[in-house]
Specification:
Blueprint: H1 6-18, H2 22-62, E1 66-71, E2 76-79, H3 84-92, H4 99-113, E3 117-123, E4 126-134, E5 140-147, H5 149-171, E6 175-180, E7 185-188, H6 196-202, H7 207-213, H8 218-234, E8 238-246, E9 249-261, E10 267-276, H9 278-307, E11 311-315, E12 321-324, H10 326-334, H11 345-364, E13 368-375, E14 381-392, E15 398-406, H12 408-450, H13 456-487, E16 495-498, H14 499-516, E17 520-524, E18 531-534, H15 536-553, E19 558-568, E20 572-581, H16 588-591, H17 613-623, E21 629-632, E22 638-647, E23 673-677, H18 681-693, E24 697-701, H19 704-711, E25 718-721, H20 730-738, H21 743-746, E26 750-754, H22 759-767, E27 772-775, H23 780-799
Parallel strand pairs: 17-19, 23-24, 23-25, 25-26, 26-27
Antiparallel strand pairs: 1-2, 1-5, 3-4, 4-5, 6-7, 6-10, 8-9, 9-10, 11-12, 11-15, 13-14, 14-15, 16-18, 19-20, 20-22, 21-22
Helix pairs in contact: 7-8, 12-13, 13-17, 14-15, 15-17, 19-20
Length: 803
């Protein structure tokens, strides 16, 4: 401190003037030193203040936020460097336009109220929070700008996210609600309340208030409150089911309430959701009902299946039995197949055959019906008719359903019946032979006697003898026909014939009898001359039986035979056939049994007859697809009629040609080499003579084994094969030959020469590889044309480009 300090001068002056003591002087010196120290400290503090003031002056300059001091007129009195963008905005006042006015308004508010004011403004594309503070004792205000762009963007993003999630919650198919910790609703989606007005009203309301407004039953409202309190208390999700009735239907709702734990551990909100379980409950109930019905149906079916006498079981491709009925168990206990440890070779062969059949059904997908002899424990044989069919499971696997029927008794009965039928046929055949032999002698001698001169009385005796003989012959023929029809129904042939010609031939056959009895015989036939397909012989047999009865029982008047077209299509013709007479008629009570065998209308009638003709006719008409009917009144005559539908022949509308067909030119077969396989020596001799007459070179064998050996070692142009032969049948020879590696042998024309004239048999022969069939007894022309057609067809096929 300078020596001319006022304090020092005053001290010296006081020391000199008062003559103080040394102690006082020392005290003064100490005080002076303290003052000097104080002054030195004051000088140091002033320097520190100066430094601090200079430091504080740098703070606004370095602030990352803009600071601007404005006058009341908007003059910028101070701006830190960060406020550069704000100053440029004030100069341009561009996009925002009213930015300066809004900022001045904020300054005026601060100046007039002497309070802090805040407002969010956008400057140069960024968002700021303006805070205006008036300076004391001045007309200026300082603006502090905080950049809130990031916060505003975060808030906008949060708003967008909230809108996004609310949109999702409004679309979810379940009811969603958000509540606070006082059970007040903060959010509900349309699934909770579809009405937007009610939905808006519920926000902020408590559960009690909302339940009362929506008329929720008190017990349900109390239950919801209980689970809310439980979720708050246990701080975990709770769920429960509610049941209520709406519009006459019971509804089931599953509700869940989950508390949201905040970072500080508190619970401010809970999320509630609910799912309508009504459809699922109904489906479950229906499923339970269906399952109960299925079980009931299974038990019912099981009862039926176990009651069946048939063996029913299901096996998989690995021979595992998946299902079996009681009859299966009973048969398995008796047989040697299921539970026997040691199986005989015969049983093993039967099991192998059964397995092969099952594999065939699985491979082909087609049902199979076979017969199987089954070995039993008592060394008896049980005959089963086995039906197998594929059983496709839901998973795509294919098992086999097997239904076996014990036909042992049936086969024994059938064998007994066939044996009886054979004995009957043998007896009838012997009786026929025993009767026909002397009868033929009697009739033959009568014919010889008729050619000699006879007196009138002798001629009457001869006529009576001939009539008795023919009656006896008719009786034998009727009995044999009935026996054949009853035991073995005849197979009807299918051939084209002229319907009018058949009627005329029937008329010619009985014309002499009608003339003899002086009866008028009339035939009514269709105006056209249709050709139909059917069995003309059997049709004519029926018509002759009916005509014979009519002529036999009619003493005067007339007999009519007729056929009328009922309907016609492009392929079929439906006809009504009838035979009418003016005889005595038949009583209604007798009409019920008129078609029974060995029955006559009047047992005491003087007319002869066996009563078999109508029975035979009725069975033949039934086989042809019709029904023989009778219409009669006593004294009014009788009418027998039946309807038949017959296919039209391809040339059905063409007139019948009366000229015989031209004889074929047998020279076309001359030189051909043909193998004839026929085991019957007479038939073989007849066929050989016919073929050799045409110039054909014939080699004959008497069994199938020799036929196959000859056909695979020597060249032939064709082969005639009998079906039933020793060794190999004609079908087996055909199957083997068609597999031969040499095309010359494999493609050889093969013709079945058979007595089996059934259509089904012929189809099977053609399916086996035969080219054609000729029935025995055969017509020479038919055999010739068949051989020629088959050979020419094979030649054409071998010469075609695609052969």
């Amino acid at each position: 401190m300078p020596i001319d300090s006022p304090l020092d001068s005053e001290a010296v002056r006081q020391a000199g003037n008062r003559n103080r003591t040394l102690g006082e002087t020392e005290a003064l010196l100490v005080a002076a030193q303290a003052r000097i120290a104080a002054l030195e400290q004051q000088l140091a503090d002033d320097h520190t203040f100066d430094v601090e003031l200079r430091t504080l002056s740098h703070i606004p300059q370095q602030s990352p936020n803009a600071i601007v001091r404005l006058s009341a007129t908007g003059e910028v009195l101070y701006a830190n460097p960060t406020a550069a963008s704000l100053l440029r905005a004030l100069e341009t006042d561009g996009e925002e336009g009213d930015f300066r006015a809004r900022m001045l308004a904020l300054v005026h508010q601060a100046l007039h109220t002497n309070q802090q004011h805040q407002q969010e403004l956008t400057v140069a594309g960024r968002h700021y929070l303006f805070t205006a503070i008036a300076l004391p004792d001045t007309a200026d205000a300082t603006l502090y700008l905080t950049d809130i762009t990031a916060r505003q963007q975060a808030e906008q993003k949060l708003t967008e996210q909230r809108l996004f999630y609310e949109t999702i919650l409004e679309q979810v198919p379940m009811a969603v609600a958000v509540i606070d910790n006082n059970f007040r609703y903060l959010f509900i989606n349309p699934q909770t309340e579809p009405d937007p007005i009610i939905r808006a009203w519920i926000i902020g309301k408590t559960n009690a208030e909302a339940s009362a407004y929506r008329q929720v039953p008190p017990d349900i409202e109390a239950r919801r409150q209980h689970f809310f309190e439980q979720a708050m208390r246990e701080r975990r999700e709770v769920s429960w089911e509610e049941t209520f009735h709406k519009e006459g239907q019971q509804h089931f709702i599953l509700r869940q309430l989950r508390p949201i734990i905040e970072p500080d551990g508190s619970i401010q909100r809970l999320v509630g959701s609910s799912i309508d379980l009504t459809a699922r409950r109904q489906a479950e109930e229906q499923q339970r009902h269906i399952e109960a019905l299925v079980k009931e149906q299974e038990a019912f079916i099981r009862l039926i299946v176990d009651t069946l006498p048939n063996v029913v079981y299901v096996a998989d491709p690995n021979d595992n039995v998946l299902f079996r009925n009681a009859a299966f168990e009973a048969l398995a206990a008796r047989s040697q197949h299921m539970y026997s440890i040691h199986k005989s070779e015969q049983v093993k062969a039967q099991l192998t055959k059964i397995k092969a059949w099952r594999q065939q059904v699985i491979a082909t997908g087609l049902p199979l019906t076979v017969e199987l002899p089954l070995s039993m424990h008592d060394d008896e044989i049980c005959y089963l008719q086995v039906h197998m069919r594929p059983l496709r499971r839901a998973n795509g696997h294919i098992d086999v359903l097997i239904v076996s029927t014990d036909v042992t008794a049936l086969m024994q009965a059938q064998e007994q019946a066939e044996e009886n039928a054979r004995a009957k046929e043998a007896f009838l055949s012997r009786m026929s032979h025993e009767i026909r032999t002397p009868l033929n002698g009697v009739l033959g001698m009568a014919q010889l006697l008729e050619k000699t001169p006879l007196a009138p009385l002798q001629q009457e005796y001869l006529a009576a003898m001939q009539q008795a003989g023919h009656h006896l012959l008719a009786l034998v023929n009727d009995v044999l026909d009935l026996a054949k029809i009853t035991t073995h129904p005849p197979q009807l042939t299918r051939a084209a014939f002229n319907l009018n010609c058949t009627l005329q031939e029937a008329e010619k056959t009985v014309a002499a009898l009608a003339t003899q009895k002086e009866l008028l015989l009339t035939v009514e036939s269709p105006t056209t001359s249709p050709r139909v397909v059917g069995d003309a012989y059997r049709l004519q047999q029926v018509l002759l039986n009916l005509l014979g009865n009519a002529l036999k029982f009619t003493e005067r008047g007339a007999v009519w035979l007729g056929a009328t077209v009922i309907s016609q299509t492009a392929t079929d013709l439906t006809l009504r056939f009838w035979v009418q007479d003016t005889g005595p008629g038949i009583a209604a009570a007798e009409q019920e049994k008129i078609f029974e065998a060995f029955t006559q209308v009047a047992p005491d009638t003087n007319s002869s007859g066996t009563g078999l003709g109508l029975s035979i006719s009725e069975q033949l008409v039934s086989q042809m697809g019709g029904m023989l009917r009778v219409c009669s009144e006593l004294g009014q005559g009788t009418t027998f009629s039946f309807n038949l539908t017959l296919p039209l022949a391809p040339d059905a509308l063409l007139p019948e040609t009366t000229s015989p067909p031209a004889e074929p030119d047998y020279e076309e077969l001359r030189g051909l080499r043909v193998l004839l396989a026929e085991d019957n020596s007479v038939n073989q001799w007849i066929a050989t003579v016919v073929l050799e007459h045409w110039g054909v070179v014939v080699e004959a064998v008497s069994n199938g084994t020799d036929a196959l050996a000859a056909l695979t070692t020597a060249p032939y142009d064709a082969a005639l094969l009998d079906i039933r032969m020793p060794g190999l049948s004609g079908v087996e020879v055909t199957l083997a030959l068609r597999q031969h590696p040499n095309p010359a042998h494999a493609q050889l024309p093969l013709i079945a020469l058979t007595a089996n004239a059934f259509e089904a048999d012929q189809i099977s022969y053609l399916a086996a590889g035969m080219d054609a069939c000729v029935n025995k007894p055969f017509e020479e022309a038919d055999l010739y044309r068949t051989i020629l057609q088959v050979i020419n067809r094979r030649k054409s096929a071998s010469q075609s480009p695609t052969a």
